[in-house]
Amino acid sequence: MLKASLDFQKALRSHGLGKRAVLLIHFINEGGQRVWSDISPTDTMLGSLETTLADGRYPADGSRTAGSLSQVVLDRGARILSAGDMKESLQPHRGRLLTNLGSSEALSHRVALSNVKDGSGVHPLSRLQGQENILSAQCELHCTFPGLLTSDIQALSKTIVQAYRLSREKLTLELKGV
Predict the structure, then answer these.
(1) How confident is residue 5, by pLDDT bands cut at 50, 70 and 90?
(2) Rg of the chain over CA atoms, in angstroms?
(3) Would you state the pLDDT for residue 86?
(4) Which of 143, 169, 159 is nearest to 39 (CA)?
(5) How far apart are the C-alpha atoms of 122 and 133, rounded to whole Å?
(6) Where are the domains positioned within the chain?
(7) pLDDT tens-digit map of 112-162
């Protein structure tokens, strides 16, 4: 069961009345973390609130740590082209617990990401495939609304990349729940 904050529930009720939900994908592999969405993710969506930068605004007396309250994100951007429905099922059989566990369908999801050339003329996800593992990378799916606090972001699922297909235009990830 998903537990959502009151602010998230209010935003969900006004969905379609000018508020649009934003899907965030945290792609995590041995190289680090990347956050992709259908819009450019803001610092709040990334979990970076009141980031302390070592830029002279704060005294170097040890009361604050540079980079505290921030996450290391290697890439972020508006890359989601489409995100299909999440599928998960459990076919109940009366009084048969072990049969229920064996007849379930684990969470599966398909996401298409943009692989168009960036400013340097390179396909960024093709470069990612050449340098790091895409297969078996962890993907965390989150949902939020613009203007909500980091604490109101709703975690939807944790998945791994079971299969993928890469072309010049897009990267399609086949995700399986863990």
Answers:
(1) confident
(2) 19
(3) 66
(4) 143
(5) 18
(6) 6-46+68-177
(7) 999 998 888 889 999 999 899 999 999 999 888 888 887 788 888 899 999
- Residue 27: exposed, middle, or buried by beta-carbon count in 10 A (0-12, 13-18, 19+)? buried
- Could you give the CA distance from residue 77 to residue 40 in angstroms, rounded to a whole number? 5
**Residue 82 β-bridge partners:** 112
What's the rounded Cα separation, in Å, for the pair 159 and 137? 9
Beta-carbon count within 10 A of 41 CB: 23
Q: Which residues contact 83 (CB under 8 A, 6 or more apart)?
A: 23, 38, 109, 110, 111, 112
**Non-local CB neighbours of 132 within 8 Å, separated by 6+ positions:** 29, 30, 31
Query: Counting beta carbons within 10 angstroms of the beta carbon of residue 25, is it exposed (0 to 12), middle (13 to 18) or buried (19 or more)?
Result: buried
- What's the confidence (pLDDT) of residue 49? 45
pLDDT at 52 over 70: no
Is 95's pLDDT higher than 50? yes
* Alpha-carbon separation of residue 62 from 17, 54, 170 (angstroms): 46, 12, 46
CA distance 141 to 80: 12
